Structure formats: C-alpha cells, structure tokens
C-alpha cells in the first residue's frame, strides 16, 4: 500500500486491531482515528509517515503503538507513555528522561567502553568477561534499563495469533558448542528489538552478535520447516538483510557469530533487530517468528581513557628505543621462561584435565584482592585462605588460595575444577574460573555475602545472623537439593545475600569420568559429619552424604555445632543429645531457644525426626536424598526410629541400636 493513511479507517469504530506495517504509507495520521475508541493494537512500522503523534493517543485505550523516525514523538505527550512509543525529541533538557530524547544522550560522563550481554539468560563468564544477565520477561511494549546502567533494550510488538507471548527462548536439548551458556537462552521479539549501549566513550567499536536457533528443531519433522528471517541494523545502517540463523549456522542448535565495526560519535550505540515480514509464523507452533539474539559483545578498537596512563607516551618511546637493541635477547629469554613455566606447573594431573572454565591471570587476581590483603580474608577453607575481591567492573568474587600446608593438593584442585565446571545447579556455588600460574593454584567463585552457615548459626557475637524458622527450613531444603560431595558440613554451606544455601568446597569429591558418579579412593571428610561405616571401614555410598545431611539438619534446628556441643558434660556430640531427647519423648527441646516460640512445631518435629532418620547407623535404613527433598517440600510427616543410647568411651559418640523396624522400606 502507498499514499496517505485512508481516512475511512476512522469510521470503523469497532476496530480492535490495525496492522499497516511494511507498506509505503506517507503523510500524517488522520485526526478521525480518534474515533477508534475500541482500538487495542496498532502497527504502523516500516512506513514513511511524517508529522507529530496526535494528542488522542495518550487518551485512547490503545495498548501498543509503534512509530519510526520521521514522526516527531513529542516528549511532553509521551512521558507517561515511554514504554510504548519510540521517542525522538531533540530537546536538551536533562530533566527529561534520556529514553525520550534523540540518541539517548548520556546525562553524566561517557565512561563506558565495553558491553557484554547474555540476551535472555543468566549472568555468564566467558573469555574472562562477564556477560550481564538479561531476564526481563516483558517485551510486547517495553523499555528496560539494565541494573548496571550500561545498556538498555526497547522491545515492541505482539505475536500474531498467540495467546501467550514468549519473549525469552530456552533451549530444550543439549548444546555441544563452546561457551554453550551464551546460547542456552535468547531474547526474541515478533517485530522490533533494539539494544542500546549507553554512556559509551566516542570511538570505533567491534560489535559481535551471537546467534543460535534454539526454537526450531532439525530432522525430518514438521518443526524443521520453520524459518526465521529478519534484518539487523547498527547505528541506523543495515548490516544484515533477510538474515536466517539456520542457514548461516548450517543447522539448528549451532552458533554463528557476526562481527561488525561501529562508530559511536555521541555516547549511544544502537543495535536494531527487525522482522522483515518474511519466513513462517506458525511452525512448529503459532507465534514463532521475529528476530532472535543470544548474546552481544561490544569492545573498543582504541585505548579507553579509563585505561590510559598519562605517562604512557614517554615510557613507550623509551621502550621502543631500548627494544631495538635488546629485542633478540628478550625473545630468547621469553622462550626459555615460557618453557620452564609450563614445565613447572603442568604436571600429569593438570595436563589430563580439559578445563571448561575461565582462566584468570595472577596479576588480575592480585589487583582484585589488593595483593591478598589480610583485611580481605573472609575465611579458611579446605584449600587454605579465602579472600574477597573486586573486579574492575565492580563484580564481587571469592578467591580460594591453595596453601602449601594444606592437605588438599593438586589432585583435589583438579577434582574441584573438573566437578564444578561440569555442573550447573542453583544450590551450588558458581565457579567463575581458576588461576594456575607459577606456584599459585587459585579458584575464583561467586561472592557469597552472608558467609557460611556455620558462622550464621553459631559464629562469634556480632557475626551470627538471626535466622527465622522459614529461613532455616529454606536453607535445609536447599542443601538437600544440592549435589552430594562427601564433605557436607555447615562450613561448606554458604549463604548469598538472600540467604539461599549453596554448597562449596568440592575438592573431596572424586569425579568418576566414566559414569559421572562418586567413587571412594581414600577416607576424606570431617569428624562429626562422617558416616560410621565410612569412618570405620572406608565403605562409601551416597548414604554417607545422607548421614552428613542429617547432622547438618540437627544443627540448623538447634543452632548448635555437632562437634562442639556439650550439655552438662553428659554428651560430647549434638547427635548424642538428640538421641537422648528422642528416647525421652522430648525431641522438641532441641529447637534453638533463639527462635522463642516463633516456629511451627509440626515442621520442627518433622525436621528433627528426619535428622535422626538420616543419621541411622545402618545405611540401608537411611532415606535417599531425593526422598528427603520430597518429604521436606511436601511437609510429609516423618516418624523417627526408636533408639536406645549406650555410651562408648572409646569413640566419644553414641552407639545406636535400632530396636524398631525404622522404615525399612525407604530406598
């Protein structure tokens, strides 16, 4: 269609949906469109309309309007409408939101010089860079600014014929490409999706766009007939036309990266993904079309001001003169140093491991921890000291440093990297990377703001946390749902800022590469948490972890440490005391007095009974961890086994004789 918008459309007073996109319409919007009082959705994109957005738009119940450059979207009309209309007011008034002004000007100093976004996914660390999370599920008419303030996206459009609007795509199959965490999710849109780099230093940048088709499937199926076709523009210039991810990647579930250069003259970079009106929109199901993007990276092709050293030109000149004379010697020295260094650090264990994680330089880690400043020390783990660090972008990290006196050596270091890098679980501390340099062996984890569960429950005064009952129960469920790793204890349970429990210190878990299970190679664990069959006979199964979990459960409910609990010197261990109270029918006396009466007696009884059931001296009578999770989540009543306590001076712990059947049917 071409020419002006037909005025006759304004007479269709019952019209609810109007789509005139992808035409050659010109002129202004007719005034009688104000009669469309039942209009819900109107698309006018990819036309050549001019003039101003009329006043009636802010009064109409219209939900989604899309206008393109050529229409002056006046800011005072649209300020409360900012998520619905792309605005291009030329005002320089800083009191007006930047998203309503042309080119999204920076209100402060343009100091950003890079950008990494995991579109539609969680935060990811790839190639030493942190890709920010992008999980906002809204998209039909949304302007979103990231928490870092470095980028934003504008999403406009409503999927045709779909009752559900899916603006985030999740992969349902296994991806085999490198850096798969960038491609397991994506952001998509039926019409127009723009990403903005905000407050960027002026200069030339390299823009990398990561794509992978994770919605369509391959093979001789109906779903394989789907086609996604869209355009990509950077800074208003089309760089990809009729782009088809499947064709470019030669299949579905495969990555394809497109590199471009872009010039930022002001402070904003605009990347625009636009449906070209082609392809399919109902295969493999309705509302599957429009642009899809997996990740975006933007890096400078210049030295940013933040990284420049004022003395750099002088120093560079001196080095250039010296290099002419000493360059041959430097080359020889460099080769020798490289060979010796590799020989020193790459023993057989490290050679055999293909690290699926990021490698950090020692220089970068020293800068983050202020050269391992004692003030940044936050704990002592199985490796040695643990330090808090801050990366240049402000991200907090925890650095675990292998001590030369530690019992945990290179083998455990390799095991920990191999196990954690292969796992993704919400209740596991996330491994960002490692550093193997010189005599330094370091692991870099996500920083856990509330330290360990041990400190929260029975740490020094001033460091303990007031954990209410529901928080304790949530922590218990989180631990139960995590991976089994042969050394579960409260010091290995860390708490994030929201008091979610995450398991750390996987060095004692032996990874069986053949079956992805755990096998026993030697006695490893902590006194007070080790299952008796493992401590006495070295017999290890997953039921040993169940025992440790039972001890931790009792500690969570009681607020006391199992290994340091003394009750009038009658009992050495918390487990002894729990069994004695159970025999007296007074198990609830074990509940932490700090809770007062603010707890659910039924839930407390369930958790205490479950703790005793998990610490049964007979492994076969302990429930499987999956059963434990189900019982906790479903509030299933648990009947603890009847026990008789006899003191044994030789081991200082209770010798338990099971008198009842004790739920012999548990798996």
From TrEMBL:
Subcellular location field: Membrane
The way it spans or sits in the membrane comes to: Single-pass type I membrane protein
Among the GO molecular function terms of this UniProt record, one is: protein serine/threonine kinase activity
List residues traversing the bilayer. 314-340
What PROSITE patterns has UniProt attached to this entry?
PROTEIN_KINASE_DOM
Q: Which residues form the Protein kinase domain?
A: 372-638
Q: Which InterPro entries has this protein been placed in?
A: Kinase-like_dom_sf (IPR011009), Leu-rich_rpt (IPR001611), LRR_dom_sf (IPR032675), LRR_Rcpt-Like_S/T_Kinase (IPR051824), Malectin_dom (IPR021720), Prot_kinase_dom (IPR000719), Ser-Thr/Tyr_kinase_cat_dom (IPR001245)
User: Catalytic activity annotated for this protein?
Assistant: L-threonyl-[protein] + ATP = O-phospho-L-threonyl-[protein] + ADP + H(+); L-seryl-[protein] + ATP = O-phospho-L-seryl-[protein] + ADP + H(+)
Known EC number: 2.7.11.1
**A GO CC term attached to the entry:** membrane
Please give the name of this protein: non-specific serine/threonine protein kinase
Organism lineage string: Eukaryota, Viridiplantae, Streptophyta, Embryophyta, Tracheophyta
